[in-house]
Amino acid sequence: MHNDIDDTRLNRIWSRPFRKRPEWVEEATRLCLEHCLFEGIAERSIQHIVSHMHPRDYQRDEVIFEMAHAGASAMLILSGEVLIMADTVELTRLHQGDIFGEVALATALPRTAQAIAAEDCRLVFFLRSDLDEWIERRPREASRFLINLSTMLAERLMERNLEMMEAAGDVL
What we know:
Blueprint: H1 4-15, H2 23-33, H3 43-51, E1 54-58, E2 63-65, E3 73-79, E4 82-86, E5 89-94, E6 99-100, H4 103-106, E7 114-117, E8 121-127, H5 128-137, H6 139-168
Antiparallel strand pairs: 1-8, 2-7, 3-6, 3-8, 4-5, 4-7
């Protein structure tokens, strides 16, 4: 016996594989492909990871996270500009394609700065729980990401050390 409920259920099942991804998934995938954190990771895998990320819009001057608060995610800037501040000191300005807050993927330490939307912006959140799931399901790809993350953090530390040495007059 044929009825409308069966048709509705079949349409829902068959439409899933052909469902169009949200527009932001394609853009976020493209931006991730260009970022050093995703170097050596297949586009298909990046697209899968991105499709599980969480988009959010912020208004100008809205606080994204506070200094000293617990961090649980990194953020990819899809559009707009973000200020990273330590107290009243502007540390940097970030733009489309930049990823920030990535230390939270490696450790549960508190945030070392504040992030504020310098203009209206759209961010995509990559949660530590998303990374944990990726590690469990695709350990080889996730380990490549973790190596990239370690390299990026080490390079940033080295740059900061050189800046401090130059400021002290101890240039190599």
